[in-house]
Amino acid sequence: MRRIAFLWIGLAAACVALGAAAAFETRASRLQAIKTVGIVSAIGEEMSLSQAGLTKLGSAGQSASISAWGLDELIVQQATRLLGARYRVQAVNYTRAGFAAIRDSAVTPVNLLRTDPFKELVRTDVTPQGLDAYIVITRAKSKLGNGRNVEGVGLAEYRTLLADYGLIHALYEVRVIDGKTFDVIEKRAAAPLDNTGTMRIAGPSGPIDGTFDGPASSERLRAAIADLITRSLPVTLDDMHLIGGQ
After folding, report:
1. Among the residues of the chain, which ranges form H helices?
2. CB atoms inside a 10 Å sphere around CB 84
3. Domain that holds residue 155
């Protein structure tokens, strides 16, 4: 009986490995078939202001408009440059507010079995239709300190009994949506650029030194957020096999 059990376990493991290999091959072949893409970005209209830690339990988060920073325009411009070496990138029209209004990330494990909410928006709200694929870049979430969610572009403060820490973050995720079937071919959240700081967050972030006067008006803060995006986007697209090596 033990031998039979081992055989069943080995057979199951082999089936899982074959299934994973087939899925990877299908995804790779679908990516290789893409010739034309459109880019949708909807992460940069507002900045969250979050506080967490032992002395800030229950404090409410705030937000500030940063639409004047043009972060989504920056993302589209950089993504066009990066993807243009491999694909024909075509400008598309879309309602940014519609994409930004979806706050529940379909990348998180709890949502893996749900229908991706961005598929229908690409089908109904993006023009022109008929491109091979659409690259959709939207806000992602992460946990800060005692479990508070932080999302998208933000400035976060974490307090302990001994010290205060602060960081800026630009959390986003990238989807490749088939332009014919509207299936999600690939999706990935941008990974941390540096995970060695005192505060760690699951996405591009960096420490702040407390010298920013105001999150909505500081040019230094805007430049720091833009730097997180411009350094992380090539890494994310490369991890998704959209640029760099095939």
Report:
1. 2-32, 71-83, 96-100, 118-125, 219-239
2. 12
3. 35-239
